[in-house]
Amino acid sequence: MISLSVIGLGNRAGKYLSCLGGKARVECLVEPDAFRLNRAAELYGVPQSHCFRSAYDFFASGIKVDGVIIAVPDQIHYPIAIEAVKRSFHVLVEKPAVTTQADYESLLEASAQAGAPVGVCLVMRYHPYYNRIKELAGTLGQIREISHTEHIGPDRMGHTFVRGGWSRKENTGPIFLSKCSHDVDFILSLCGPGAKATKVQSEGSIELFKRSQAPAESTDRCIHCPVKDCRYNAVNLYRERKEWIAGFDVPPGKTLDQIIEEVLTESQFGLCVYRCQNDVYDTQKVNVELENGIRLSLSLEGTSAKEGRETIIRGTKGVLKADGGIITCGAIREDYSQLESAPLHAGADKALVEDFLRSIETGTPMKASLQDAAEAHRICFLAE
Ligand SMILES: NC(=O)c1ccc[n+]([C@@H]2O[C@H](COP(=O)([O-])OP(=O)(O)OC[C@H]3O[C@@H](n4cnc5c(N)ncnc54)[C@H](O)[C@@H]3O)[C@@H](O)[C@H]2O)c1
Q: Rounded CA gap, 76 and 79, in Å?
Protein backbone atom coordinates (compact mmCIF):
# COMPACT_ATOMS: atom_id res chain seq x y z
CA MET A 1 0.00 0.00 0.00
CA ILE A 2 1.18 3.52 -0.81
CA SER A 3 2.54 5.40 2.22
CA LEU A 4 2.05 9.13 2.56
CA SER A 5 3.21 12.00 4.69
CA VAL A 6 0.77 14.90 4.90
CA ILE A 7 2.25 18.31 5.73
CA GLY A 8 -0.12 21.06 6.93
CA LEU A 9 -3.36 19.74 8.42
CA GLY A 10 -5.85 22.49 7.62
CA ASN A 11 -8.78 22.77 5.26
CA ARG A 12 -7.24 21.34 2.08
CA ALA A 13 -5.38 18.46 3.71
CA GLY A 14 -8.63 17.38 5.38
CA LYS A 15 -10.29 17.13 1.98
CA TYR A 16 -7.45 15.11 0.44
CA LEU A 17 -7.20 12.80 3.45
CA SER A 18 -10.90 12.03 3.12
CA CYS A 19 -10.29 10.89 -0.48
CA LEU A 20 -7.60 8.26 0.14
CA GLY A 21 -10.00 5.32 0.24
CA GLY A 22 -8.19 2.07 0.91
CA LYS A 23 -5.41 2.81 -1.55
CA ALA A 24 -2.97 4.64 0.70
CA ARG A 25 -2.09 4.81 4.37
CA VAL A 26 -1.04 7.87 6.30
CA GLU A 27 2.47 7.14 7.54
CA CYS A 28 3.41 10.58 8.90
CA LEU A 29 1.66 13.83 9.80
CA VAL A 30 3.22 17.28 10.11
CA GLU A 31 1.51 20.30 11.65
CA PRO A 32 2.74 22.97 14.09
CA ASP A 33 -0.67 23.26 15.78
CA ALA A 34 -0.85 20.56 18.47
CA PHE A 35 -4.64 20.38 18.47
CA ARG A 36 -4.82 19.78 14.72
CA LEU A 37 -1.92 17.32 14.80
CA ASN A 38 -3.45 15.21 17.57
CA ARG A 39 -6.90 15.30 16.00
CA ALA A 40 -5.57 13.95 12.69
CA ALA A 41 -3.30 11.40 14.44
CA GLU A 42 -6.30 9.96 16.22
CA LEU A 43 -8.46 9.95 13.10
CA TYR A 44 -5.87 8.22 10.91
CA GLY A 45 -4.24 6.05 13.59
CA VAL A 46 -0.79 7.60 13.24
CA PRO A 47 1.53 6.95 16.24
CA GLN A 48 3.11 9.93 18.03
CA SER A 49 6.55 8.78 16.80
CA HIS A 50 5.36 9.61 13.25
CA CYS A 51 3.77 12.96 14.11
CA PHE A 52 5.90 16.09 13.73
CA ARG A 53 5.47 19.76 14.55
CA SER A 54 7.86 20.77 11.78
CA ALA A 55 8.49 19.48 8.26
CA TYR A 56 12.24 19.58 8.90
CA ASP A 57 11.85 17.20 11.86
CA PHE A 58 9.96 14.84 9.56
CA PHE A 59 12.72 15.02 6.92
CA ALA A 60 15.41 14.61 9.59
CA SER A 61 13.65 11.50 10.95
CA GLY A 62 14.75 9.57 7.86
CA ILE A 63 11.31 7.94 7.56
CA LYS A 64 10.72 6.93 3.95
CA VAL A 65 7.34 7.45 2.33
CA ASP A 66 6.11 7.05 -1.24
CA GLY A 67 4.45 10.43 -1.45
CA VAL A 68 4.17 13.76 0.33
CA ILE A 69 1.12 16.02 0.24
CA ILE A 70 2.02 19.65 0.94
CA ALA A 71 -0.97 21.74 2.03
CA VAL A 72 0.71 24.55 3.99
CA PRO A 73 0.44 28.32 3.39
CA ASP A 74 1.65 29.40 -0.08
CA GLN A 75 4.95 31.03 0.97
CA ILE A 76 6.37 27.82 2.42
CA HIS A 77 5.46 25.42 -0.39
CA TYR A 78 8.87 25.87 -1.97
CA PRO A 79 11.24 25.13 0.95
CA ILE A 80 9.22 22.06 1.91
CA ALA A 81 8.74 20.78 -1.66
CA ILE A 82 12.44 21.11 -2.42
CA GLU A 83 13.37 19.02 0.63
CA ALA A 84 10.83 16.39 -0.39
CA VAL A 85 12.07 16.04 -3.98
CA LYS A 86 15.70 15.93 -2.81
CA ARG A 87 14.69 12.76 -0.97
CA SER A 88 13.03 11.44 -4.16
CA PHE A 89 9.56 11.50 -2.64
CA HIS A 90 6.67 12.00 -5.07
CA VAL A 91 5.09 15.34 -4.25
CA LEU A 92 1.60 16.76 -4.49
CA VAL A 93 1.79 20.46 -3.68
CA GLU A 94 -1.14 22.84 -3.31
CA LYS A 95 -1.53 25.63 -5.80
CA PRO A 96 0.15 27.99 -6.36
CA ALA A 97 3.08 25.57 -6.48
CA VAL A 98 5.50 28.31 -5.36
CA THR A 99 5.42 32.10 -5.20
CA THR A 100 8.27 33.23 -7.49
CA GLN A 101 9.45 32.34 -10.99
CA ALA A 102 12.96 31.59 -9.66
CA ASP A 103 11.57 29.09 -7.15
CA TYR A 104 9.44 27.50 -9.86
CA GLU A 105 12.45 26.91 -12.07
CA SER A 106 14.51 25.66 -9.15
CA LEU A 107 11.81 23.16 -8.15
CA LEU A 108 11.43 21.97 -11.74
CA GLU A 109 15.15 21.37 -11.96
CA ALA A 110 15.36 19.62 -8.60
CA SER A 111 12.41 17.40 -9.52
CA ALA A 112 14.01 16.41 -12.82
CA GLN A 113 17.40 15.77 -11.20
CA ALA A 114 15.96 13.60 -8.45
CA GLY A 115 13.47 11.86 -10.75
CA ALA A 116 10.79 12.86 -8.24
CA PRO A 117 7.59 13.94 -10.02
CA VAL A 118 5.73 16.93 -8.62
CA GLY A 119 2.00 17.37 -9.11
CA VAL A 120 0.10 20.59 -8.41
CA CYS A 121 -3.42 20.70 -6.92
CA LEU A 122 -5.03 22.25 -9.99
CA VAL A 123 -8.45 20.87 -9.19
CA MET A 124 -10.10 22.59 -12.16
CA ARG A 125 -8.34 20.06 -14.40
CA TYR A 126 -10.39 17.31 -12.78
CA HIS A 127 -13.70 19.14 -12.49
CA PRO A 128 -16.62 17.85 -14.61
CA TYR A 129 -17.99 21.35 -15.34
CA TYR A 130 -14.67 22.73 -16.60
CA ASN A 131 -14.00 19.54 -18.53
CA ARG A 132 -17.36 19.99 -20.27
CA ILE A 133 -16.47 23.60 -21.18
CA LYS A 134 -13.21 22.33 -22.60
CA GLU A 135 -14.99 19.65 -24.63
CA LEU A 136 -17.49 22.14 -26.08
CA ALA A 137 -14.75 24.70 -26.78
CA GLY A 138 -13.42 22.10 -29.21
CA THR A 139 -16.48 22.76 -31.43
CA LEU A 140 -15.85 26.50 -31.77
CA GLY A 141 -13.38 26.34 -34.64
CA GLN A 142 -10.23 28.37 -34.14
CA ILE A 143 -10.40 30.10 -30.76
CA ARG A 144 -9.64 33.82 -31.14
CA GLU A 145 -10.45 35.36 -27.79
CA ILE A 146 -11.33 34.33 -24.23
CA SER A 147 -12.61 36.57 -21.52
CA HIS A 148 -12.73 35.15 -18.01
CA THR A 149 -13.69 36.76 -14.71
CA GLU A 150 -13.34 35.22 -11.30
CA HIS A 151 -15.84 36.85 -8.95
CA ILE A 152 -14.51 36.01 -5.51
CA GLY A 153 -17.76 36.80 -3.71
CA PRO A 154 -18.20 39.00 -0.61
CA ASP A 155 -17.94 36.30 2.07
CA ARG A 156 -14.84 34.62 0.65
CA MET A 157 -13.25 37.98 -0.10
CA GLY A 158 -13.80 39.33 3.41
CA HIS A 159 -12.86 36.12 5.21
CA THR A 160 -9.87 35.02 3.18
CA PHE A 161 -8.36 37.95 1.28
CA VAL A 162 -9.13 40.91 3.57
CA ARG A 163 -9.17 39.51 7.11
CA GLY A 164 -7.54 36.11 6.68
CA GLY A 165 -4.36 34.32 5.75
CA TRP A 166 -4.27 35.45 2.12
CA SER A 167 -4.57 39.18 2.79
CA ARG A 168 -0.89 40.17 2.89
CA LYS A 169 1.58 39.48 0.11
CA GLU A 170 4.46 38.81 2.51
CA ASN A 171 2.51 35.91 4.03
CA THR A 172 1.01 34.51 0.88
CA GLY A 173 2.02 36.08 -2.44
CA PRO A 174 0.09 38.17 -4.94
CA ILE A 175 -3.66 37.52 -5.05
CA PHE A 176 -3.74 36.86 -8.80
CA LEU A 177 -1.29 34.01 -8.22
CA SER A 178 -3.00 32.59 -5.14
CA LYS A 179 -6.56 32.89 -6.42
CA CYS A 180 -6.30 32.65 -10.21
CA SER A 181 -3.34 30.40 -11.00
CA HIS A 182 -5.70 27.50 -11.66
CA ASP A 183 -8.02 29.74 -13.68
CA VAL A 184 -5.12 30.74 -15.91
CA ASP A 185 -4.10 27.10 -16.20
CA PHE A 186 -7.64 26.16 -17.23
CA ILE A 187 -7.92 28.97 -19.79
CA LEU A 188 -4.53 28.01 -21.30
CA SER A 189 -5.73 24.42 -21.61
CA LEU A 190 -8.40 25.72 -24.04
CA CYS A 191 -5.80 27.38 -26.25
CA GLY A 192 -3.98 24.39 -27.68
CA PRO A 193 -0.96 22.43 -26.46
CA GLY A 194 2.02 24.47 -25.34
CA ALA A 195 0.14 27.80 -25.47
CA LYS A 196 2.69 30.46 -24.55
CA ALA A 197 2.29 34.12 -23.65
CA THR A 198 4.15 36.74 -25.68
CA LYS A 199 2.68 39.75 -23.89
CA VAL A 200 1.18 40.22 -20.41
CA GLN A 201 -0.30 43.49 -19.27
CA SER A 202 -1.82 43.91 -15.82
CA GLU A 203 -3.52 46.55 -13.69
CA GLY A 204 -4.53 46.00 -10.10
CA SER A 205 -5.58 48.03 -7.11
CA ILE A 206 -7.39 48.06 -3.79
CA GLU A 207 -10.66 49.71 -4.71
CA LEU A 208 -12.92 48.89 -1.78
CA PHE A 209 -11.20 47.36 1.24
CA LYS A 210 -9.43 50.45 2.57
CA ARG A 211 -10.04 53.07 5.27
CA SER A 212 -11.29 55.72 2.88
CA GLN A 213 -14.27 53.48 2.03
CA ALA A 214 -15.33 52.88 5.66
CA PRO A 215 -18.79 54.20 6.56
CA ALA A 216 -18.40 57.30 8.79
CA GLU A 217 -19.92 55.74 11.91
CA SER A 218 -18.23 52.33 11.55
CA THR A 219 -15.88 50.98 14.23
CA ASP A 220 -12.74 48.83 14.29
CA ARG A 221 -14.59 45.65 15.24
CA CYS A 222 -17.90 44.52 13.77
CA ILE A 223 -19.15 43.42 17.19
CA HIS A 224 -19.30 47.09 18.28
CA CYS A 225 -20.33 48.54 14.92
CA PRO A 226 -23.63 50.40 14.53
CA VAL A 227 -23.66 49.82 10.73
CA LYS A 228 -25.84 46.71 10.85
CA ASP A 229 -26.54 46.42 7.13
CA CYS A 230 -22.86 46.19 6.15
CA ARG A 231 -22.46 43.32 3.65
CA TYR A 232 -19.17 42.37 5.31
CA ASN A 233 -20.41 42.33 8.92
CA ALA A 234 -18.49 39.55 10.70
CA VAL A 235 -21.22 39.11 13.34
CA ASN A 236 -23.69 38.35 10.57
CA LEU A 237 -21.27 36.00 8.79
CA TYR A 238 -19.97 33.95 11.70
CA ARG A 239 -22.50 34.27 14.55
CA GLU A 240 -25.76 34.57 12.63
CA ARG A 241 -25.21 32.73 9.35
CA LYS A 242 -22.54 30.38 10.77
CA GLU A 243 -20.63 30.45 7.50
CA TRP A 244 -16.85 30.27 6.94
CA ILE A 245 -16.40 28.82 10.43
CA ALA A 246 -14.92 25.45 9.41
CA GLY A 247 -11.40 26.70 10.15
CA PHE A 248 -12.25 27.77 13.73
CA ASP A 249 -11.01 24.90 15.88
CA VAL A 250 -13.08 24.00 18.94
CA PRO A 251 -10.79 22.48 21.60
CA PRO A 252 -12.22 20.22 24.32
CA GLY A 253 -14.07 22.17 27.03
CA LYS A 254 -15.26 24.90 24.66
CA THR A 255 -18.28 25.24 22.42
CA LEU A 256 -18.39 26.52 18.85
CA ASP A 257 -20.48 29.49 20.00
CA GLN A 258 -17.82 30.44 22.57
CA ILE A 259 -15.12 30.21 19.91
CA ILE A 260 -17.12 32.43 17.54
CA GLU A 261 -17.46 35.08 20.29
CA GLU A 262 -13.68 34.90 20.88
CA VAL A 263 -13.08 35.25 17.15
CA LEU A 264 -15.33 38.31 16.98
CA THR A 265 -13.79 40.02 20.00
CA GLU A 266 -10.13 39.07 19.69
CA SER A 267 -9.05 37.79 16.28
CA GLN A 268 -8.47 39.40 12.90
CA PHE A 269 -11.71 37.79 11.71
CA GLY A 270 -13.71 40.23 13.85
CA LEU A 271 -12.14 43.33 12.28
CA CYS A 272 -13.87 45.86 10.04
CA VAL A 273 -12.97 45.01 6.42
CA TYR A 274 -12.14 48.65 5.78
CA ARG A 275 -9.57 48.73 8.58
CA CYS A 276 -7.54 45.54 8.08
CA GLN A 277 -3.86 45.16 7.26
CA ASN A 278 -4.67 43.79 3.77
CA ASP A 279 -2.37 44.75 0.93
CA VAL A 280 -3.43 42.30 -1.81
CA TYR A 281 -5.53 43.77 -4.60
CA ASP A 282 -9.29 43.39 -4.65
CA THR A 283 -9.50 44.12 -8.37
CA GLN A 284 -7.11 43.11 -11.14
CA LYS A 285 -7.31 42.94 -14.91
CA VAL A 286 -4.74 40.98 -16.90
CA ASN A 287 -4.54 40.96 -20.69
CA VAL A 288 -2.48 38.27 -22.36
CA GLU A 289 -1.48 37.71 -25.97
CA LEU A 290 -0.49 34.17 -26.87
CA GLU A 291 2.06 33.09 -29.45
CA ASN A 292 -0.77 31.54 -31.52
CA GLY A 293 -2.64 34.88 -31.67
CA ILE A 294 -5.33 34.15 -29.07
CA ARG A 295 -6.13 37.09 -26.80
CA LEU A 296 -7.05 36.54 -23.16
CA SER A 297 -8.75 39.02 -20.91
CA LEU A 298 -8.60 37.76 -17.32
CA SER A 299 -10.18 39.54 -14.38
CA LEU A 300 -10.18 39.07 -10.66
CA GLU A 301 -13.14 40.82 -9.06
CA GLY A 302 -13.32 40.96 -5.28
CA THR A 303 -15.66 43.89 -4.74
CA SER A 304 -18.95 42.82 -6.29
CA ALA A 305 -21.85 40.83 -4.85
CA LYS A 306 -21.40 38.11 -7.43
CA GLU A 307 -19.57 34.86 -6.76
CA GLY A 308 -18.32 32.37 -9.34
CA ARG A 309 -16.61 32.27 -12.69
CA GLU A 310 -17.80 33.80 -15.92
CA THR A 311 -16.17 32.72 -19.19
CA ILE A 312 -16.78 33.72 -22.81
CA ILE A 313 -14.89 31.88 -25.54
CA ARG A 314 -15.09 33.29 -29.06
CA GLY A 315 -14.09 31.05 -31.93
CA THR A 316 -14.28 31.24 -35.72
CA LYS A 317 -17.35 28.96 -35.67
CA GLY A 318 -19.18 29.96 -32.52
CA VAL A 319 -19.26 31.40 -29.04
CA LEU A 320 -19.48 29.63 -25.69
CA LYS A 321 -20.65 31.31 -22.50
CA ALA A 322 -20.32 29.74 -19.10
CA ASP A 323 -21.63 31.58 -16.07
CA GLY A 324 -22.63 30.31 -12.64
CA GLY A 325 -22.61 26.70 -13.81
CA ILE A 326 -24.70 27.29 -16.94
CA ILE A 327 -23.07 26.66 -20.30
CA THR A 328 -24.56 27.97 -23.54
CA CYS A 329 -22.95 27.13 -26.85
CA GLY A 330 -25.02 27.45 -30.04
CA ALA A 331 -28.21 25.47 -29.47
CA ILE A 332 -26.77 23.76 -26.38
CA ARG A 333 -27.74 24.91 -22.91
CA GLU A 334 -26.54 22.80 -20.00
CA ASP A 335 -27.02 23.45 -16.29
CA TYR A 336 -24.23 22.41 -13.93
CA SER A 337 -25.12 24.92 -11.22
CA GLN A 338 -25.68 22.13 -8.66
CA LEU A 339 -22.02 21.20 -9.04
CA GLU A 340 -20.86 24.61 -7.83
CA SER A 341 -21.60 23.70 -4.23
CA ALA A 342 -21.13 19.93 -4.54
CA PRO A 343 -18.69 18.52 -1.97
CA LEU A 344 -14.97 18.09 -2.66
CA HIS A 345 -15.10 20.41 -5.69
CA ALA A 346 -17.74 18.18 -7.30
CA GLY A 347 -15.47 15.13 -7.01
CA ALA A 348 -12.44 16.90 -8.49
CA ASP A 349 -10.50 16.62 -5.20
CA LYS A 350 -11.01 12.84 -5.25
CA ALA A 351 -9.98 12.56 -8.90
CA LEU A 352 -6.86 14.61 -8.15
CA VAL A 353 -5.85 12.36 -5.24
CA GLU A 354 -6.51 9.25 -7.33
CA ASP A 355 -4.29 10.68 -10.07
CA PHE A 356 -1.55 11.32 -7.51
CA LEU A 357 -1.74 7.73 -6.24
CA ARG A 358 -1.79 6.42 -9.82
CA SER A 359 1.26 8.55 -10.59
CA ILE A 360 3.12 7.05 -7.62
CA GLU A 361 2.13 3.51 -8.60
CA THR A 362 3.05 3.82 -12.27
CA GLY A 363 5.90 6.32 -12.04
CA THR A 364 4.20 8.48 -14.68
CA PRO A 365 3.42 12.21 -14.25
CA MET A 366 0.08 13.49 -13.05
CA LYS A 367 -2.38 15.23 -15.36
CA ALA A 368 -1.59 18.30 -13.26
CA SER A 369 2.19 18.11 -13.36
CA LEU A 370 4.58 20.88 -12.34
CA GLN A 371 5.88 20.98 -15.94
CA ASP A 372 2.38 21.46 -17.38
CA ALA A 373 1.47 24.17 -14.91
CA ALA A 374 4.61 26.24 -15.61
CA GLU A 375 3.14 28.66 -18.15
CA ALA A 376 0.09 29.48 -16.02
CA HIS A 377 2.36 30.30 -13.09
CA ARG A 378 4.72 32.32 -15.34
CA ILE A 379 1.78 34.47 -16.52
CA CYS A 380 0.75 35.10 -12.89
CA PHE A 381 4.32 36.10 -11.95
CA LEU A 382 4.52 38.40 -14.98
CA ALA A 383 1.15 39.95 -14.13
CA GLU A 384 2.50 40.82 -10.69
N1 LIG B 1 -6.71 23.78 -4.77
C2 LIG B 1 -7.62 24.59 -4.24
O3 LIG B 1 -8.73 24.69 -4.74
C4 LIG B 1 -7.30 25.36 -3.00
C5 LIG B 1 -8.33 25.94 -2.24
C6 LIG B 1 -7.97 26.62 -1.07
C7 LIG B 1 -6.64 26.73 -0.71
N8 LIG B 1 -5.66 26.20 -1.49
C9 LIG B 1 -4.24 26.24 -1.11
O10 LIG B 1 -4.01 25.17 -0.19
C11 LIG B 1 -2.99 25.53 0.74
C12 LIG B 1 -3.52 25.30 2.15
O13 LIG B 1 -4.69 26.08 2.32
P14 LIG B 1 -5.76 25.73 3.45
O15 LIG B 1 -7.01 26.41 3.05
O16 LIG B 1 -5.77 24.28 3.74
O17 LIG B 1 -5.11 26.54 4.67
P18 LIG B 1 -5.28 26.23 6.22
O19 LIG B 1 -4.82 27.45 6.91
O20 LIG B 1 -6.63 25.70 6.50
O21 LIG B 1 -4.23 25.05 6.47
C22 LIG B 1 -2.86 25.21 6.42
C23 LIG B 1 -2.25 24.40 7.56
O24 LIG B 1 -0.85 24.46 7.45
C25 LIG B 1 -0.33 24.55 8.77
N26 LIG B 1 1.04 25.06 8.72
C27 LIG B 1 1.48 26.35 8.79
N28 LIG B 1 2.82 26.39 8.73
C29 LIG B 1 3.25 25.09 8.64
C30 LIG B 1 4.52 24.49 8.56
N31 LIG B 1 5.64 25.22 8.56
N32 LIG B 1 4.59 23.14 8.48
C33 LIG B 1 3.47 22.39 8.47
N34 LIG B 1 2.22 22.91 8.56
C35 LIG B 1 2.11 24.25 8.63
C36 LIG B 1 -1.29 25.48 9.47
O37 LIG B 1 -1.17 25.42 10.88
C38 LIG B 1 -2.62 24.96 8.95
O39 LIG B 1 -3.15 23.95 9.75
C40 LIG B 1 -2.63 26.97 0.42
O41 LIG B 1 -1.49 26.98 -0.38
C42 LIG B 1 -3.82 27.48 -0.36
O43 LIG B 1 -3.51 28.54 -1.24
C44 LIG B 1 -5.98 25.52 -2.62
A: 6
